[in-house]
Amino acid sequence: MDLSLNEEQSMIQAMARKFATTELMPVAEKLDKQNDRETLLTNLKKLADLGFMGINIDAAYGGTEAGSVAFSLAITEIARGCASTAVTTSVTNMVAEVIQAVGNDAQKNQHLPKICSGEYSAGAFCLTEVSAGSDPSAMKTTAIRDGDEWVLNGTKQFITSGEYAGVFVVWAVTDKALPKGKGISCFLVEANTSGMTIGKAEKKMGQHASATNEVRFDNCRIPKEALLGDLNKGYKVAVGELAGGRIGVGSMALGIASAAMDFARDYIKERKQFGQTIADFQGIQWMLADAYTELEAARLLLMNAAYVKEQGQHFGKQASMAKLYSSEVANKACYTALQLMGGNGYIADYPLERHARDVRVTTIYEGSSEIQRIIIAKQLLSDT
Q: Catalytic annotation on 366?
């Protein structure tokens, strides 16, 4: 089995790593402490110029057309530099893939070039609601047809990039008479559409520079052409795209944890106690070995999920396994790295406390670890 990267994948990984090292790492602390939107948006545009906002999008629309493996590699490297930038990049790619997968020619021609070029600073994925988190089929937002328009009413919660997204993919109930989850459709809503209001950014534990907003629809009128995909078939679209998003979240978790462990590894090689470096102690070496072994296993799970997706095969189970394992061991690795640094790991002058905060949410969004286990178990039981 050949696990080596091809030339294009290696190039994208190297380019993402260089950008993370030169552009993201130097400003990550500032972004975290000051919520510096201007710097974030500047870096997002630079990433778009380099082709990172449409990694799996056809070249005809300005995409890189490099595939899912390259996407995972890129998000991992970007997350090494800045988790806030990584999550924005991941979700924007996710939105572009939804439009490419189920949009018509007019929709793809209108929105994909703007996403890939950075004309849209980001894309937003509007699925979650107060009462519809792990169970999105319980959503209350509605879309009612009125002549040549759809009228949206409802509220979405925890929407990444709500403040600066150029286009929103929005799910709403279009037929309440159908069984739960069967009467949901998907729509494209452009920024600044009348009747759509973006709430203030949530105050979060980590990933501070990435805006997470409430998005409200109050008799928001959109043209009938805004319907994305088939009527009442939107829930299936959401489930499919969430699987792809899990590869992104797992890759981001891997990148954050890798940055944390690399920093701690360098630290213990220099820090001395009892007349020798901390790295000379066998117990410390075992902590290091275990953490890097688990992160390597996470990388392989992610590569497998991305490869299966790239082959056009069903990849839901593989994506859930990769997301579950990667996010859990990444949290563990960040705390191991913090522990290796002792008291200094707890001080905000070092990046470990930021990495520990940034990585925590990866076991929650795009489906919590508990939900991933349910998905995996259902798939395993249906296979027998």
A: yes
Given the residues 163, 214, 353, 366, the one annotated as active site: 366
Rounded to an integer, what is the distance from CA 80 to the centroid of its chain?
14
d(CA 147, CA 222): 11
Q: pLDDT tens across 7-60, in order?
A: 999 999 999 999 999 999 999 999 999 878 899 999 999 999 999 999 999 999
Q: Which of 19, 143, 4 shows the shortest CA–CA distance to 86?
A: 19
Distance, CA of 52 to CA of 42 (rounded, Å) = 14
| pTM score, whole prediction | 0.95
Q: For the domain with range 236-383, which CATH number is right: 1.20.120.430, 1.25.60.10, 1.50.40.10, 1.20.140.10? A: 1.20.140.10
Query: What gap in Å lies between CA 127 and CA 202, rounded to an integer?
Result: 17
DSSP H helices, the chain, are 7-19, 25-34, 37-49, 68-81, 83-102, 105-117, 234-270, 282-310, 316-340, 352-360, 369-383
Q: Which residues of the chain have pLDDT under 50?
A: none
205 three-class SS: coil
Assign domain 125-234 to its CATH architecture: Beta Barrel (2.40)
Instruction: Name the CATH superfamily housing domain 7-121.
Output: Acyl-CoA dehydrogenase/oxidase, N-terminal domain (1.10.540.10)
One-letter amino acid of 206:
G
